[in-house]
Amino acid sequence: MVALASRLIRIFALALSMLGGIAGSLDLARAQGVPVASAVDLQTAGELTRLVFDLSEPVSVSGHVLAAPDRVVVDLPEVSFKIDPGKGQGVAPAKTGNRRNQIGQMQGAKPLLGAVAAYRFGLVAAAKSRIVIDLTHPVRIHRLLSEPQQGGKGARLVIELAKIERSQFLAEAAKSAQSKPLMSSQPTPTVEPSALPVVVLDAGHGGIDTGANAPNGVLEKDIVFDFTRNLAARLEMGGKVKVILTRDTDVFVALGERVRRARAVGAALFISVHADTLSNDGSVSGATVYTVSDRASDAEAARVAEKENQSDILGGLDGSEDQGDVSDILFDLTRRETRAYSHVFARTLVGYWQDIGSLNKNPHRSAGFRVLKAPDVPSVLLELGYLSSRNDLASLTAPQWRDKATDRVARAVEGFFMERTGGVTKAVTDR
Ligand SMILES: [Zn+2]
Questions:
Q1: What pTM was computed for the model?
Q2: Which of 54, 302, 345, 403 is buried most, with the most CB atoms less than 10 Å from its CB?
């Protein structure tokens, strides 16, 4: 009986790890030889707030503060965090029932304790991990160290924050903004010149930015990574386009960097894949295709864009991205043409997706998504569904559904390029 139970548990664990898919196995592979963080504890003592991580060994640490929104950023070498990301969001560990506060993530989440509203941890670049703490009030980093545990194995990382005046905090933040932290050390991908159109697939979120949390503990970053890898494989097999991924592992990539990569490889199409929770309303469901616009098509689109545009802030970057908006006529023409193609592809995609049924009641929407702002690359953001919807979550985690959906998106991509080379091109640009 006991043996059977333990076997069942093992099978269940295996199934869970398969849900994590490729991202999970990459994490496992990487964890070898990398320090492991196994537990975290948050305490207050008077004006001090202390966040302590248990580590397998001491690591080198450095920290700085950022304003607007107010955050503490702690940089580390690569650390494998074996800690539920929900802990830092005040989200209870996965269990059934009690849906409401588990889907909260960011919106309406209550401050955790003392100076800490919430915190996140994970990779921000190859071999670089980071902890980002959202603050409830201004602090200075009072103590930041990593030391061996007294009388035991392993080590601990101590982050101690002391309350200070706002003016002092702003002065500190200005200092750290000057010595700007590294955005991303990853090289821009290069592609061999190819007769085939280049499609850039962008798995949303990654690393320290987990994206949305499903009630059962499934993370958006893993679901979309898995989907994107499958889509890439399907498109490569079709042989009609060349595929480049903006991330091929569980790592944070800044929004501007995703756009830069697409432009650097001369992408003819950019698809950013997501699966968010929008609200606590489990009845909102189905896929939505977003294009960029200066003014949002509706309030819901505006909220989704606002949430997606937070990614850099979650990753501990200075939120003020170079806007780089050139205003000359040639640029405007290019951008207008690009937006027309983005619309054509969005409509094509919605058309193909209809076969599998699960479309949002208003499936093509638009808003000011930063990741869609390449002026010369037709770009869409595909929300596969909502993790807050029971039906969508069931679909998104089912391999059969994923394969079918992947196939529809691939056909839409192939159909889009077939039409572009076949005469529809003219109709669009002549407008
Ligand atoms: Zn997302």
A1: 0.78
A2: 345
**Span of 70-84, 369-383, 411-425 with lowest mean pLDDT:** 411-425
Question: Measured between alpha carbons, how far is 388 from 9 in angstroms, rounded to an integer?
Answer: 26
Nearest CA-CA partner of 141 in 150, 131, 151: 131
Mean pLDDT of the chain: 82
The domain 198-429 is classified under which CATH number: 3.40.50.720, 3.40.630.40, 3.30.390.30, 1.10.3470.10? 3.40.630.40
Cα-to-centroid distance, 122 and ligand 1 (Å): 17
Sequence spans of domains, the chain: 34-176, 198-429
375-410 pLDDT tens trace = 899 999 999 988 888 888 888 889 999 999 999 999
Residue 353 has, within 13 A of its CA and on its CB side, a CA count of: 23
Q: What is the DSSP string of 11-63?
A: HHHHHHHHHHHHHHHHHHHHHTTS-EEEEEEEEEETTEEEEEEEESS----EE
Euclidean distance between CA atoms 221 and 205, whole angstroms: 5
- Please answer whether residues 125 and 182 qualify as being in contact, where contact means their C-beta atoms are separated by less than 8 angstroms: yes
**How does DSSP assign 193-253, residue by residue?**
--SSPEEEEEE--BTTB---B-TTS-BHHHHHHHHHHHHHHHHHHHTSSEEEES-SSS---
pLDDT (0 to 100) of residue 281: 63
- Name the residues around ion ligand 1, CB cutoff 5 A: 204, 211, 274, 276
Beta strands in 106-138 (DSSP E): 116-125, 128-135
183 vs 252, 253, 262, 338, 369, CA distance in Å? 10, 9, 17, 27, 20
Contacts of 150 (CB under 8 A, 6+ apart): none
How far, in Å, from the CA of 253 to the mean position of ligand 1?
A: 13
Residue 410 has φ and ψ, to the nearest 5°, of -60, -45
> What pLDDT, in 10s, does the model give residues 137-148?
999 999 999 999
Q: pLDDT tens-digit profile of 22-60?
A: 344 444 444 568 999 999 999 999 889 999 999 999 999
Distance of CA 400 from the midpoint of ligand 1 (Å):
22
What is the third-level CATH fold of 34-176?
Immunoglobulin-like (2.60.40)
